[in-house]
Design brief:
The chain is of the alpha+beta class. It has 6 helices and 9 strands.
Length: 218
């Protein structure tokens, strides 16, 4: 007698994601001791696994982390200018190991590039848009370490999505590291859904979720 039908690994199943998170953490911890050929194959084929979790169906809707609340202080969100790049580069250096240079940020000014300001710039969001395909990719979101957990990222995303809707963008995509659970929960609050796991660089142990959001849905 055949067993119950098995369902493919579900990137939106919390239990599946916990397993992948542990998988990636283990990979990073022991990468110096294991043959990368074995580890890479295991991660790349993770989507061939099966979800057997009872919680796969009817999972409660995710919410943003409790610490990521809307700020209650005066602030403004505006389009970035070239004069802002020095401060943006400072936040970039404090936020990412792999950083954009001045020229990349200067080019990004031609697209949707927002800054959150309260006396000084505290965070930014950069998105690349294709009007023909009606698609956008959020390339960068960063908040100064001293001001995280105040809802700045939430406000930036809200403003960016509103601008993209007005531009008649139909789908927004972003990539987020598998182990950044707080960021994933924040994106899910806005309706982003995980589509697949992307392994960008095996040698440097990089694994990301590709998440997408449908805008202007009927």
């Amino acid at each position: 007698m055949e067993g119950p039908e098995r369902k493919r690994w579900d990137p939106n199943c919390p239990k599946c994601r916990e397993e992948l998170e542990r998988h990636v953490e283990l990979w990073r911890t022991v990468s110096d001791e294991l043959d990368h050929g074995v580890v890479k194959g295991a991660l790349f084929k993770f989507e061939d696994y099966f979800c057997t979790h009872e919680t796969q169906q009817g999972t409660s809707k995710s919410t943003a982390p409790p610490s990521e609340q809307s700020p209650d202080f005066p602030m403004s969100i505006r389009l970035a200018t070239e004069r802002d790049l020095e401060r943006i580069l400072e936040i970039e250096r404090l936020s990412f190991e792999k950083q954009w240079d001045h020229d990349k940020f200067k080019t990004a000014l031609n697209d949707v590039f927002l800054v959150f300001e309260e006396k000084e710039i505290l965070g930014f969001l950069s998105a690349c848009c294709c009007a023909v395909a009606r698609r956008a990719i959020i390339m960068k979101i960063a908040v100064h370490p001293d001001h995280r957990g105040k809802g700045i990222a939430t406000r930036l995303i809200e403003e960016a999505l509103e601008k993209l809707r007005k531009m008649e963008i139909e789908e927004v995509e972003l990539h987020v590291e598998v182990i950044k659970r707080g960021a994933i929960q924040l994106y899910e609050k806005f309706g982003f859904k995980t589509r697949k796991v992307v392994t960008v660089n095996y040698e440097e142990d990089e694994a990301f979720y590709e998440m997408r959001l449908k805008l202007n849905a009927a």
